[in-house]
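Hello Y.,

Per our agreement to keep a running log of every chain we model this quarter, I'm adding this entry. I've kept the format consistent with earlier entries: sequence first, then predicted structure.
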Amino acid sequence: MSIELWNKALEIMELDSRISTTIFDNIIKKIKPIKYQNGLLILSCRDEYSKGIITNNEINSLIQGAVSLVADGNVKLSLIVGGDDTDITTVSIAEKKVIDNTVKSTSKTNIISSFTFDNFVVGDCNRFANAASIQVADKPGQSHFNPLFIWGNSGLGKTHLMHAIGNRALEKNPNLNVIYTTCEQFTTDYISCINSKQFEPFRNRYRTVDILLIDDIQFLINKEGTQQEFFNTFEALINAGKQIVITSDKAPSNLTTLDERLTSRFQNGYTMDVQPPDYETRKAIFLKKSESDEITIDPEITNYICENSTDNIRSLNGAYNIVTSVIALSNKVDITLSDVKVQLDNFFSPNKRQTLTYEIVINKVSQYFEISPEKIVSNARNRDILVARNTAMYLCREYLDLPLKKIGMLFGGRDHATVMHSIEKVSSDDSYNKHIEEIKKMLPL
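Predicted structure for the entry above:
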């Protein structure tokens, strides 16, 4: 049964563009299924390095997703190191350990202990969200930070921040009742209590917590019954002075098909966005990973990856995993940038559409006006620089939907009123129209 399940999962993973050919051929295909029972699949890796690659959150979730799809149900993975003759005692211990950890996690907090503030790399893209999260972890239930609503595209670290809040809060006060859940899990639990007609356990679980961390709230859309139940849960917790932290891929004002009572309450708390990481943040993340893994990577390769991984942190992690695999599996003493480029073709295609960031906006405005990015964000006030700066601020507001305060911070620490004046200047002055239209053609819109 385990062999058949694994072989079918391999067929799915071979077609998954998110898994590099190098990792699939040299690591995943070399894995051997040992045992499948009670929703647990035990896999044997060739060595500790292979196991380390597979236990990476991104790769592990892709494998688990493929296996669960074949099994038509959620499957847990346990990874051990060894061959076909793996001792059954080792397998049994591994199985018990995974089951014990799963029960402990499910019955208590679901908090992932490895996601902390210490290993969350802070940059301009997430500085305010990180600061707000620390404030909530240290003093949960404060009215002006309740709920804390963190929004942004997938893969930017929102979930990491939620787990970090839980870990820090529990470190300071182990007696707190903290639960992390996804909106989908909340919905599943609610449907189960409807089917069983036992609402009390569900409500006791979610309405007696000190901190509720709920991921991807946008999945409540079109689920009217669940929305009502979440609204009631939300009200019960807020009225009791308990802390709620919510993430979404959109700002509350853009969740237009969600119950207006919910979006208005989300906006009544503290809303903070996270943006795609800038180059400096991407490089800091990459260097921190390589330092932690004690792997030396050529600076030229590091710069190439960090310059091209503009979408999110997951794509950066994926590129890092591929490069470290190439280093480990190659017989060469030194890996060149050319070697890496071949393996990263799926990640960094020349035709790949970029995700718009404030960096791209400033760089394109810089190219158009032939004024350096440094001058655009400086305090210089000659007319040409002012026009370029006003244009860049307007585009950041129009196409990135950044708060005025955040734009001011990105443009040299300017205040809210200054940014508003610059944007209004562009909106009311027709002389800007041509500039805006030409620069729009240069942006990945």
